[in-house]
Design a protein that fits this description.
It contains 10 helices and 9 strands. By secondary structure, the chain is of the alpha/beta class.
């Protein structure tokens, strides 16, 4: 699974680059960047992609293969992922939500990109951290397409107990296999099951556990009136891993947000979803 976390995937119609950006002392995150070979497309403002918790690039390959020929793309992997380079002992507080937003801001600063110029695309944890950063004023944007943001992370009671008990590293692999089993039972879409299985099996297990312990203590602010970025929240009826009632409550709390229902979670990972995304970006004034 090491191949999931190294090298810049070369996609047709774009030049690829892999960077590691230091976002805090002893912590660097992996960034993938594509610039279209078509000069007119390359001159457009960037799309910044922030994927979900533990998400690997392969799950987004179908969408990005098309998108990189149309727009410059920056893909930022958050610090809980195995790709992050952390040269000290990790702690639960390293994975608190506020750090993720600061990390994204640090990457943009390193690349010389103003967040006001960015069209964002994100999923799950990536969507949550962006909303949090918009509300706190850490990030801005031209538009933000948010797939299934988490209002909170309501792990079942049994897992909450397990997450708060010191666990020997020897049992981590068994825990991951159990998590895969749980996810597969809760997921209706076969493609979604495949993506989550692949992601879970390729993680740094210590980071994933500490990140879960940090996420379990987090919820989005009730007051999201400080968000000035035009937002579209995307949901799929077949997505059983995200609480749709809570997601729709986020739509209500975000100023002037729109709700876009898509056929399936897998559809959001494919090129076809660009129809909905580009239509929203156009309506947002881009």
């Amino acid at each position: 699974m090491e191949e999931m976390w190294s090298g810049a995937p070369h996609l047709p119609g774009a030049n690829a680059e892999e960077l590691f950006v230091e976002v805090a002392p002893n912590i660097s995150v992996r960034v993938l960047r594509w610039v279209p070979t078509d000069s007119s497309a390359a001159s457009l403002g960037p799309v910044v992609v922030v994927p979900g918790w533990g998400s690997v690039f392969e799950g987004w390959r179908p969408l990005l293969t098309e998108w990189v020929s149309r727009r410059p793309i920056v893909y930022i992997e958050t610090r809980e992922k195995k790709s992050a380079r952390i040269s000290r002992k990790v702690r639960r507080e390293d994975f608190e939500m506020r750090h993720h937003g600061d990390d994204v801001a640090a990457v943009l600063a390193h690349l010389g990109i103003s967040s006001t110029e960015v069209d964002w695309f994100s999923s799950s944890l990536g969507s949550t951290l962006l909303i949090d950063a918009y509300q706190s004023g850490v990030l801005e944007g031209r538009s933000s397409s948010l797939l299934a943001p988490n209002d909170d992370f309501p792990f079942p009671l049994w897992s909450r107990i397990l997450l708060n008990v010191p666990l020997p590293k020897a049992i981590y692999p068994a825990l991951v296999r159990f998590a895969v089993w749980i996810v597969e039972r809760r997921t209706d879409e076969e493609e979604q099951r495949i993506r989550y299985r692949r992601s879970l099996l390729s993680q740094d297990l210590e980071r994933l556990l500490l990140s879960a312990r940090a996420n379990i203590r987090y919820s989005l602010p009730r007051d999201l009136s400080g968000v000035t970025v035009p937002c579209a929240v995307m949901t799929a009826p077949s997505d059983t891993l995200h609480d749709m009632e809570k997601v729709l409550d986020i739509v209500d709390r975000l100023p002037d947000a729109v709700h876009i229902e898509i056929p399936s979670n897998q559809y959001a990972h494919e090129a076809g979803v660009l129809v909905e995304i580009e239509e929203f970006q156009s309506s947002a004034g881009n």
